[in-house]
Amino acid sequence: MKNFCFPEPGSSLKPYVTLSKNVKRLAVVSDFHGNYTSLKAVIAAAEKLGCDHYLCGGDYLGYYYEANEIIELISALPHTAILGNHDRDFLTLLDGEWQMTAEYKDKYGSSLEMALTRVEKENVRWLRSLPVMLEVSIRNRRILLCHGSPWDIDEYLYPDMAEQNLRVVYDLNYDLVIMGHTHYQDVKERGQQIILNPGSVGQARDRGGEAAWAMVTIESNSVVTELVRTNYEIDQVVSQVIAFDPGEKYLYQVLRRGVHGV
């Protein structure tokens, strides 16, 4: 599989963007996984709550089937985005640098393979333009946006991460470090420093029935985070799984985890 460069945090080689001082409330969204139904619900909720910019933590593809629509919707919003591991897998598959194994398809279903013909060229170009990690500056606040850990796009740092990993993340000296990948919401604070995982828009695993995301409000002297859950029509996604991957029960069972005793 193609080796995507993952620069050291603080490295001058790492992409860097400064957001307008007019941006006040960020919607932090990640791990969409082809679930266009959930993303539409989240955007509607974010607009009502006054979010004026979207920080996107990657994994637009994988599991479910409307990645093309997701990319079109996100790219039309005021956004800052990075690449996720499933997006990387799609690009390496598209480029013929990796062959999908039977084990991979058994675990994740057919969506990535279907995306080869469903994701339009313009949206592929958008994916190729994304960095794997990004420093964001707004009102003198330093934010690190990454998909897995700050040093590995594939590493899971769950809410119960080892204390050693927690210290390493804090010692990067960002005001806010945003990590996705786990599909579990979490927020931790040490003094004025915050570590945030918004959870998954498309496949929340800590509690089903809702899309998980977060809001970050940047004030002159504070950064305020809020974990958010948004209901959406899960049955629409379940019907797609039954149509395209009828043998992959996990793909829809996880969406209902913790709902009505499931």
Describe this structure in words.
The protein has 262 residues and is of the alpha/beta class. It has a domain at 22-132 and 198-256: 4-Layer Sandwich (Purple Acid Phosphatase, chain A, domain 2). The chain has helices at residues 36-48, 67-75, 85-94, 102-108, 111-118, 121-128, 163-170, 234-244, 250-253; strands at 16-18, 25-29, 53-56, 79-81, 133-138, 141-146, 176-178, 185-190, 193-198, 210-218, 223-231. The strands form 2 sheets. It has a 6-stranded mixed β-sheet with strand order 1-5-6-7-9-8, with no helix packed on it. The mean pLDDT is 92.
Fold topology:
Elements: E1 16-18, E2 25-29, H1 36-48, E3 53-56, H2 67-75, E4 79-81, H3 85-94, H4 102-108, H5 111-118, H6 121-128, E5 133-138, E6 141-146, H7 163-170, E7 176-178, E8 185-190, E9 193-198, E10 210-218, E11 223-231, H8 234-244, H9 250-253
Helix pairs in contact: 3-5
Determine Rg (CA atoms, Å): 17 Å
Mean pLDDT: 92
Question: N-to-C terminal Cα separation, in Å?
Answer: 37 Å
Percent strand? 15-25%
CATH topology of the domain at 22-132 and 198-256: Purple Acid Phosphatase, chain A, domain 2
From the coordinates shown, what is the CATH architecture of the domain at 22-132 and 198-256? 4-Layer Sandwich
Biggest beta-sheet profile: 6 strands, mixed
